User: What shape does this take?
Amino acid sequence: MIILFSFIIALLTMVWVNPFGLVSRFTTYFNGQDLLAAAQTTVFRNTPEKRTPEWFPVKGRVPDWFNGIMYRVGPGKYNIEQANGTTFAINHAFDGMPFMHRFEISSERQAVRYNSRNISEEFESSIAKDNGQGKIFFGHQPTVTSVKQRLKDIYLRFDSMLLSRRPLDETSPSSQPVGVTATPNFPIPPVYKAADKNNGESDRVLVAKTDANMLQQLNSDTLEPKRLFNYGNFEKKLKGDLSAAHHQYDPITKETINFVLDMFPARLQVFSSTPEGKITILADFTHRLDEKRTRVQPVYIHAFNITKDYIILPEYSLAYTNMGVDFLVSGAVNTGMAWSNDRPTFFHVISRHGKGLVASVPVETFFSFHVANAWDSVDAQGRQVIDMDICAFENADIMCQLHTFAKPVRQAEYDSHVKKQLELSKQSQQYNGMNIPPLRQPSFGDLRRYQIVLENGTGEATYRTIASNVEFARYSQDYAMRKHKFVYGCQLISVTAKSNERYDLVKVNLDDGSVIRYSQEGCACSEPIFAPRPGGTEEDDGVLMSLVNKLDKEDPSKDYCFLLLLDAKTMQEVATCQVGQFTATTFHGSFVDHHFENVSIN
Assistant: This one.
């Protein structure tokens, strides 16, 4: 009802201020949407499901100490057969039906047991029935052929999201696409834990998360969806519409930390949960702690940092427009956002010890999807100092460039790619502060070290760049919330006349910015995950794992994917395991040991 009220208020406000401006607003709005739709021409292939697990042999050797399960999640099905025989093609990388992948690694067998599953079958079925009408995607822009169709889509979205909306836990477990992060051992509401125990089910928990206040519990072995729920099922006071796909976890206190964000008025509730699902609300605020106590904006937050004493929520200059109504009207989240170069980014610093919001610190505006580690200390003047490693972009153009992610340009496509980029550059214009149609992403953002110095309820933030072109940052979680030396991530290497576009794996020395890389022709490496060697005394003593798509320079039928294990010290290959003659896009992953204990979770 909050969003419905927001829609009515936004509509009345636009009419009251300028009745003719309402028409102008939506004309500009739909023109921008149509420009994005015209630019999204990438054709994605479906990834096959593999529900029946199969053991695959390893090439090389898995270290004797290395045993456990890697979960990865990402879009798997883009082309959906309709009831009328046509195909509904999704043209944005983020919006394929999410697949969960499970890799059970055995050093004893020197093999990997692999299975996967489409975890949004019911959502896919609804698309097959109605050609995607009334659906909300992250960035896919449906082709609209008439005003009548556009109006019908808008009505269906408001009906499903507001008028006919049912509690999540009363809907089919696979009726929503929840596929950004995969988290083993995530807390679940006590009532669900009791129900699973009464049904004789395993106490091993696997949860998929996204940037909405929506979670999906899966069977940790078969990957079958069990239920949908949200943070309101833990604590009724937590009723925000949005949340972070990347929660934070404190391995010392065993707390899980996240927030919920209400759209109208913008309101942030920051909370922690015990492993048993007991919630503590740590902050609840609608205004910044600046001189004028200005209102916070309903911004997009994908990830955030924590230290032993603080939670740091970034308020970027990328905000949902018209109180969240625009993305309901368009059916795509990224066309319901606007970027402002004129506003700073604010770091909201929240105490983990009952003091609530303690500072709102402005810094030169930037945008980020992903963060690495953070820690706090006290300087010589007795001031609290917070250091944070963040993968930063100068603006939000990346939001519109992402539609081609995980579909690298092949060497054979180089000439046509250069020509297309030239054509797009001539058409480019500003829409909601972002350039559309978007040029292809030339690199990732920079790995920056942000530092906040707190004093007397205020603070100052500065940063320095450690390394350029780094994304999907991970580190040894043995060093969570304390100063350390290494970050692992991905680096984007553009297509040339001699080689494919690719994603290399990199190891960044945080002290001097030097980089060691794993780089192989045609390899698009996914986010790395670090597992330390038990008993090891050095930070980089362990294995780095990734799922890699190997792309032929010309022929897609020759593509395949494989599990990659590297020696994290040297970034040299230790073992590989090919699991199929297909490619699989996965954004994020987690690893647990053979006892299902957390090693590195997302």
